[in-house]
Structures are given as C-alpha cells and as structure tokens.
Design a protein that fits this description.
The complex is a heterodimer of chains A (about 120) and B (about 110).
Chain A lengths: L2 E5 L2 E3 L5 E8 L8 E6 L5 E7 L6 E3 L7 E6 L4 E6 L8 E13 L2 E9 L3 E5 L2
Parallel strand pairs in A: 2-11
Antiparallel strand pairs in A: 1-3, 3-8, 4-5, 4-9, 5-6, 7-8, 9-10, 9-11
Chain B lengths: L3 E4 L3 E3 L5 E11 L4 E6 L6 E5 L3 E2 L7 E14 L9 E8 L2 E4 L3 E5 L1
Parallel strand pairs in B: 2-10
Antiparallel strand pairs in B: 1-3, 3-7, 4-5, 4-8, 5-6, 8-9, 8-10
The chains are: A mainly beta (about 120), B mainly beta (about 110).
Chain lengths: ~120, ~110
C-alpha cells in the first residue's frame, strides 16, 4: 500500500543544518509530486516546498526560500528536505505528502492524498 | 498570494448535529484547487474533499463539500464521535499550497 515515511528529525542548535528524508513505497516519485508541510506545536499547517513529478520544478514558501532545498533520489524513491540556518521558529513536525492531480469534468483538481506520520525537528540552544 | 480564512472557530456541537464549516479565499480561485483535510490529535492530516466537492476514497458520505469563487463550505451532516477534530481548507496552484488556519470542531 502507498506509504510515506519521514526520518531525520531531532534536536539541533540554532544556525545549524539538518536533512530530512521522505521514503516512498508502492508508487514511484517519478510519477508524483511530493510536498513538505510543517506544523509548529499547537499551530496550523504550513506548506514548505514541493518537487514536481519531473524533478525539474521546485517551489518554496517565501519564508523558506534560500534556506531550505528540496531534492530527490529516484533510485531510492526518496525525497529530501535540506534545511540550513535553522531558527527556533523552524521547530515543528515536518510531514511529507503526495500530490494528487486528477481531472474531474472540465477541471483539474489538486490536493495531497497520502501523508507520512511526520518527523519532529526541535531547534533549541 | 491567496489567503484562506476559515470560520467559525471553534465550533461546539453535540454528536448527531450538523456541522457547517466555511473557507473564504482572498480572491476567486478555481474549485479544482480547493480541498479539505481532517486532522485528529497526534495524527497526520487526512484528505476528505478534493476539487471542492469530490469525496476522497474511503470518506463517509456524511462529509460533503460545496462552493465556488471565494466561498467554500464543508458540511458534516451528522457528527460521529470520531469527527471531532480540526479541519483545514487548502488552495493548491502551480507554484504552491496555502492552508487556512483551521476550524476545531469540539464536543459541546
């Protein structure tokens, strides 16, 4: 069955870097876009980044441009989120999720159909 | 940038009652780009509705979505105990995703 498993979270100092992984199973990431979404403790969902199915298009939330980088390894069916210059406000659970883009009638619908359980990143001195 | 404003917040209801949740976009959006998610405590979000009104696989028919332009609604016809959770609307265009702030449906 379709599954996404995040890893790589932990406690890090401000200003340091961390790389998160999102391992996909039962589907190929070469056919689907993959997003990172985060949730600070007690807060709502905040979109972070997406890498399209073709691997060429990557987009980021404005607040993370220049600090975060999304990439992928097709051979491992894994998507990564490289985070640099981490700040206390980056403390959150980081989820990865799969894009679902399907036509319904004359409209193309876009949503995130499968989500991982998340990995917690804590930035603290 | 599209801003999604959800209301009311929070919503206090009893099991068996009807819940009506609102999501308003700062400008007109394609219905295809609008989705709804449920998040229970300690769990990942779950897709409920995509394309504003299509139920995702395995979602009970007590959940329905409607709306167009700037105003969208998620309706839960009769609340079950497992429906008490936080609900988010989402807009997804070619360059990224925006979530609303969420509406918590709590037991009265």
């Amino acid at each position: 069955q379709v599954q996404l498993v995040e890893s790589g979270g932990g406690v890090v100092r401000p200003g340091t870097s961390l790389r998160l992984s999102c391992a996909a199973s039962d589907f190929s990431i070469s056919n689907f876009g993959i997003h990172w979404v985060r949730q600070a403790p007690g807060k709502g969902l905040e979109w972070v980044a997406v890498i399209w199915f073709d691997g060429r298009n990557r987009y980021y939330a404005d607040s993370m441009k220049g600090r975060f980088s999304i990439s992928r390894d097709i051979s491992n069916n894994t998507v990564y989120l490289q985070m640099t210059s981490l700040r206390a406000e980056d403390t959150a659970v980081y989820f990865c999720a799969r894009s679902l883009i399907v036509p319904v009638g004359l409209t193309t619908t876009r949503s995130l159909d499968y989500w991982g359980l998340g990995t917690l990143v804590t930035v603290s001195s | 940038e599209i801003v999604l404003t959800q209301s009311p917040g929070p919503l206090s209801l009893s099991p068996g009652e009807r819940a009506t949740l609102s999501c308003r976009a700062s400008q007109s959006v394609s219905s295809g780009a609008l989705a709804w998610y449920q998040q229970r405590p300690g769990q990942a979000p779950r897709l409920l509705i995509y394309g504003a009104s299509s139920r995702a696989a395995g979602i009970p028919d007590r959940f329905s979505g409607s709306g167009s332009g700037t105003d969208f609604t998620l309706t839960i016809s009769r609340l079950e105990p497992e429906d008490f959770a936080v609900y988010y609307c989402q807009h997804y265009d070619m360059s990224g995703v925006t979530f609303g702030g969420g509406t918590k449906v709590e037991i009265k």
